[in-house]
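Reader question, answered in our methods column.
A reader sent in the components of a multi-part assembly and asked whether the whole thing could be modeled at once rather than chain by chain. We filled in our standard form and ran it. Here is what they sent:
COMPLEX SIZE: two components
ENTRIES:
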Amino acid sequence: AQSVAQPEDQVNVAEGNPLTVKCTYSVSGNPYLFWYVQYPNRGLQFLLKYITGDNLVKGSYGFEAEFNKSQTSFHLKKPSALVSDSALYFCAVRRSGYSSASKIIFGSGTRLSIRP
Amino acid sequence: DTEVTQTPKHLVMGMTNKKSLKCEQHMGHRAMYWYKQKAKKPPELMFVYSYEKLSINESVPSRFSPECPNSSLLNLHLHALQPEDSALYLCASSHPSRAQGDTDTQYFGPGTRLTVL
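And here is the structure of the entire assembly that came back:
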C-alpha cells in the first residue's frame, strides 16, 4: 500500500526566511514523488518531482525538495519565502514502474502562510 | 505547453438537472483523469481513462458518468446529483510511462466549481 503524510496542517514563515514543508511516504519499491501547489479556487500546479538520481530536486518558483531514502522523506524547501508563496501544498507519491495511467496518492495538504 | 482547460468555471444545478463538465488538452497525453476536491482537502480520484478507455473507476456513484470521445477530450456527465456532490472537479492528463525511469506527471486544469442546490 502507498501512503503519504504531511504532518503539519499549517506552516507560518516570515517573508525572506527559509521555509520547509514536510512530507514522508510509504511505498513498496522505489517511489516517484511529486509536489503540487494550489492557489485559492484554482487547480493544482506541478512544482517538481523526484524519479531517481540526485537527491536534491529543483523545481518551479525557486522551490527545491530533498529526497531522503533512509528517512522516507521528501521535504519541500525554499531559501527565501515570498508572500506570493502563500498557498496549499500537496505532496504525492506513486510506485515506480510502467503504468499506462498512474494512480498517485496525495498527502492531506499543508497550508503555507507567509507574513510580510 | 502544459495546459489543461476546463469548462465551465462555475456551475450551479438543481438535483433534477442534467449537466456536463468538459476537459480538453492538446499535449498529446493519452491518460486523462477526473478528481473531486472538497475545500481544504486533497483531490480524490474518480475516474481514469487510458488510450480513451476507462481503466479506473473508484466506485463512483452512477449519477456521475464519464466519457472520452477522443484523445483530447474528457467529459463528465452529471444527473440527479446531491448537495453533498458540491465540490471542485478537477481534470488532469499525463503521458503514459513507457519505460523504467519515465514518469507520468499529471497536469491539472483549473477546475469547475460545482454547486448542487
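What stands out: The mean pLDDT of chain A is 92. Chain A touches chain B at residues 32, 34, 36, 41-46, 49, 51-52, 88, 90, 96-104, 106-109, 111 (CB under 8 Å).
Send us your own complexes using the same form.
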